[in-house]
Amino acid sequence: MNLEELSVEERAALLSGGSEWDSRGNKRAGVPSFVMSDGPHGVRRQLGEGDHLGLGASKPATCFPTAGTVANSWDPDLAEEMGRALGREAHDLDVNVLLGPGMNIKRNPLCGRNFEYYSEDPQVAGRMASGLIKGIQSNGISACPKHFAVNSQELRRQASNSVIDERMMRELYLTAFEIAVREAAPHAIMTSYNQINGVYAHENKHLLQDILRDEWGFDGMVVSDWGGSNSAVAAAKAGGSLEMPSPGYTSVRELIAAVKAGELPESDLNARAAEVAKIAQLTRFEGVGRDDLLRDDIVAAHHDVARTVAENSLVLLKNDAVLPLRPGTRLAVIGDMACTPRFQGSGSSKVNATREENLLDELKACAGVTVAGYAQGYERQGAHNPALVNDAVALAGRVDVDAVIAVVGLDERSESEGLDRSTMAMPQAQNELIAALKTAGKPIIAVLVAGSPVELPWLDDGINAVLYVGLSGQAGASAAVRVLAGAVNPSGHLAETWPLRYSDCPSAGWYPETGRDVIYREGPFVGYRYYETAHVPVRFPFGYGLSYSDFTYSGLSVDGHSVDEHSVDEHSVDERGVSFVVTNDSDIPGATVAQLYVAGPAEPAGGVLRPARELKGFRKIRLGAHESKVVHIAFDRYTFRHYDAAAGAWRTQSGQWTLMVGTNVEDLPLAAPVTVPFIINDDEQTAPAAPVDTGSGNAGLHDAALADRALGHYLTGDVTHVTDAEVAALFGHDAIPSSAPSKFSANDPISSWKYSKGFAARTIARTLIRREAKIREKTGAPDLNVLFILNMPPRAMSKMTQGMVDSAMVDAVVRIANGHTLRGAGAFIAGFFRNRGANNRLAKELRS
């Protein structure tokens, strides 16, 4: 049966979920229901109805390294191998759509969800995601990259408005998604919770239709983040296909009414229903055996894959000739995380791992080294405990100890969905432990566990080596030991900059934004784009990583000319780009990451504002001892372009550009000039920029003098002194951060009720805030349900309660927030019975 032969009611029903994780099917049209599941680094197939935050039990699955760690491999082929394993497990656990990968740009190191995201750079994020997507979808499973788009903080994540100019949005925050859509063709994509320039992502026509569908050619399903839909009708008009989780029948009723009133064209309804039905058909597994639990051989094989991914993603940050460990080394192993591992973050991505390793046991099993003893060293939750430090120092000072392995990093409270980090510092108890261990006079090797950068005040004083393992998945401990012992040569490179201190970050002064409007006033100067332009020293530059091998780069040529007789890398093709020779000068086989950066022409009058240099390509190169290879990195549509918002087009600035090649953004031994334009997409037309609709009404901000002052700040890299008014003048924003609201709306988060004049609303908010803090202190982990409620605006109640709450009841809740407790409560009760009756009538009609 053709979908258009279904009734309006039946078609409208396809546009929202049937439960927490299932879509609605339609037997008459042959559209099966399909199952969606997190996650980006492991299948979180929940038992029973489940909950979207993953607090309930889930089936065992392989926990691979998180995206922030996998990105350090700079190896899309490795990501594809991991994706194939993920897709196989999704298939075997009856999952049709896997919700990942996470692709948002790391604007600030304190974002609580950074461990789920790849990089501060769209090239790394886009190409790593493309590999994972291809691997997942090779199993007939749909990948679903997220969160589209401009989603950079967890605070107020469902009630914030990202105010950003069109050029920065496209060049920095959308390019990763563009690469993934064009290269890997994901079948689905998930929208973010936030507004973009005043319009919710799931109903943002400029984002979903103009850019995603019309420009990039995406023809799949757009699903809301769980509770992230605002208006079902607006979403259907704009290109949003599916609301999740089940909003009951409230959204269906709204869609039916809009079609009957002529507010929603049936063509839009039909298009959205077809997108949902297409996913159901693409991921259909009729007659194929699928297991309730993973088979033992799959568990074993995928544990090995997880180890391989981790081995290629660990980053050697420092090595004063103490690694790899010499045969016979006697070790003191110190640190709570050596015994009780932390290998993933908190939140909806948390996986019930099939196996679990710890560094202490893996070191004990490692041939060639001896564990002389273990000491806890610190309280995991950061409490000061001198006795633990003294025990650790005593162990390190023993005569039968040659070196110390200190496992330190961030605890479970520090990195979580729903909660941004409060500091870039490590727990002070661990810093004090490191300082105390130096008194033992033994070589100290720090194994660093964290999904994001941390400040390292002790790095330059008595620490001999640092191995950054990130959040390396269930096989991360054995991978780390293999690197420490020399069985694996480390080859990871950082996919984000590590600043010396948090105050050096360009957005440190205004992150996270506590009000509604999150103004991206740092412009394009995020991560290394800022540090390189402003000449700010960093702890570790973007792209940095050490090896047990030594590599040299030579012979740079442009457009394939002057390549000598060395063997050609397997990726080389006859296309425009740069070629160069990489040589392994050591006796040890190893791998390096060759990186291509470009710098635009010197600023002429009316020139293009851009960072000092930008990554435009990379290649992971594996070389035997003393082997050389010619490496080719091709130019593509992204190499020289910039977005001209006034023209609504991608342009290439003519003039002399500089091409640079090396191992990180600061170490670029090869450079060559090239004259452009000669690139592909100089006149690629796009949709005009959407107007900024923030509702702030701040007229008179567009002042030429302010714009000139802002431009001066940007050209010198002085981002931290740019004011909101200057940003508004330069980029056309018409918003300033909002203070505590005097009157609450359906889009203000529950947390903001702490300012309410109404006793009931104020008490609810403050009680929840105190409860979450108390539970986090007691358990050492955030209370995700309470955090979700605090960040949730009342409008989400109509999306997260299986249809028990409709928009009229939401209005009643808002009355309570504004101090009209009795009137609001009465309207809510009356609305409950009215809504239940309407839902029952529609359910009966659909069944018939």
UniProtKB/TrEMBL annotation:
GO biological process per UniProt: carbohydrate metabolic process
Name this protein carries in UniProt: Glycosyl hydrolase family 3, N-terminal domain protein
PROSITE patterns attached to this UniProt entry: GLYCOSYL_HYDROL_F3
Family, per entry: Belongs to the glycosyl hydrolase 3 family.
GO MF entry, a single one: beta-glucosidase activity
InterPro entries per record: Cellulose_deg_GH3, Fn3-like, GH, Glyco_hydro_3_AS, Glyco_hydro_3_C, Glyco_hydro_3_C_sf, Glyco_hydro_3_N, Glyco_hydro_3_N_sf
Keywords: Carbohydrate metabolism, Glycosidase, Hydrolase
The protein's Enzyme Commission number: 3.2.1.21
Keyword Membrane recorded: no
EC category name: hydrolase
UniProt organism field: Bifidobacterium subtile
